[in-house]
Amino acid sequence: MSAPKYSAEFEEQVVLEIVQESGPVAGVAGSYGLVAQTVGNWVAGWRREHPDLGADAVTAEEHAEIKRLKAELREARMENEFLKKAAAFFAQESG
């Protein structure tokens, strides 16, 4: 008994659901009634054929934006910490 042959369009639909939406291989495979190993092989093949289109491919602009946002978050946390200390100081002074 040989494994069923699926159309290229169907395989691509399943793979893109995993790659674009970061869905778990086992979960997506189960929703289509497929074996997770088979779907994992499809995904691995797709990633070999499209190394620049993977979910982990971050553009230079995205990298710069992430860096900027991390710096902004760090600054906001420092300001928040300062305000907590100032509030505690003034609460102690008034009480």
What does this structure look like?
By secondary structure, this protein is mainly α. It contains 4 helices and no strands. It has helices spanning 8-21, 25-31, 36-49, 60-94. Helix 2 (25-31) crosses helix 3.
Structure, briefly:
The chain is mostly helical.
- Can you tell me the overall shape? elongated
pLDDT averaged residue by residue: 85
Classification by helices and strands:
mainly alpha
Q: What is the makeup of the main sheet?
A: none
Query: Which consecutive residue ranges, at least 5 long each, have pLDDT under 50?
Result: none
Output the radius of gyration. 24 Å
Number of strands: 0
Q: What is the multimeric organization of the chains shown?
A: single chain
Task: Quickly list its features.
about 100 residues, elongated, mainly alpha
Q: Secondary-structure blueprint of this entry?
A:
Blueprint: H1 8-21, H2 25-31, H3 36-49, H4 60-94
